[in-house]
Amino acid sequence: MLNYLIKRILMMALTLFLIITLTFFLMHAIPGGPFTSEKMLAPEIEAALNAKYGLDKPIWQQYLSYLQGIITFDLGPSFKYPGVRVNDLIREGLPVTAQTGFLAMLCVVALGIPLGIVAALHQNKWQDTTIMAIATMGVAIPSYVLATIALYLFALQWQLVPTFGLDSWQGYILPVLALSGFWLSFIARLSRSSLLEVLGQDYMVTARAKGLHPQTILFKHGMRNALIPIVTVLGPVVANLLTGSFVIEQIFALPGIGRHFVLSISNRDYTTIMGITIFYAAFLMLMILIVDLLYMVLDPRIKLGEKAQ
């Protein structure tokens, strides 16, 4: 286990290094700079700003300086918010993004998996048909379309929830619905197919032939193996939800990380773009590592880091 963790951490560090390098040089390959879009900006002022942020130095010096900051967990200053660092923007937006994402994740797990189980246990019956029809629609409809329709109906037409902001608990309803819609439907479909595959295995037939209680067969023998592909998907899903959706946060005007990312693109705020990209990549790799470790809990036969004999 220790050797496996060391190898994975080294691989994560190498992957993160490549992401940092690629993101840095892609940002600097874009024509212009973070201050070239400012209106009526004198060349002397632009030169002074470039010198202040070290943008007048050779690209390799800027790269080494940025790597040095990354090592000390400093993502650099924001080019559009004087006196504000990228770490501060992430620290400011993370609670909002994490709260919304956590609620969406609860909806995905608490509703998606049970709906998939119900559909599998009532295969080809009206319960299965209804759940799969709704799940197919949820997968097919993009989240921003769902968010726009929900915003128009529930907020503008019926005025049941606020149109934007998180001043009350009602403000979380539409963002959570829009965030979880696709993944809830996807997990429901995956849960159904995974459980149906497990229920058809020989050891499940043997368990039924021995006269075991149906609940014991389902939860002790069936779900434990059926959860393995679901957990595989839940790692990236959790990372995606907890780091927010850029479009959803923009639609509902949520002051989260996604909104900062969208604004940084339009403002050509290079350090903020790179910082949020690096943060998301690191969090995603961490969630994938946690999922790999959970494999051993769900199936002790899985030995991480060992070669097949």
TrEMBL record:
The keyword Transmembrane helix belongs to this UniProt entry's keyword annotation: yes
Cell location: Cell membrane
Gene3D superfamilies, A to Z: MetI-like (1.10.3720.10)
Keywords: Cell membrane, Membrane, Transmembrane, Transmembrane helix, Transport
TM segment ranges: 102-121, 133-157, 169-188, 226-253, 273-298
Family annotation (InterPro entries): BPD_transp_1_N (IPR045621), MetI-like (IPR000515), MetI-like_sf (IPR035906)
Keyword Phosphoprotein: no
Predominant place of localization: membrane
Residue ranges annotated for the ABC transmembrane type-1 domain, each copy included: 94-295
Protein's membrane topology: Multi-pass membrane protein
Similarity annotation: Belongs to the binding-protein-dependent transport system permease family.
Protein name as annotated: ABC transporter permease
Species this chain originates from: Maritalea mediterranea
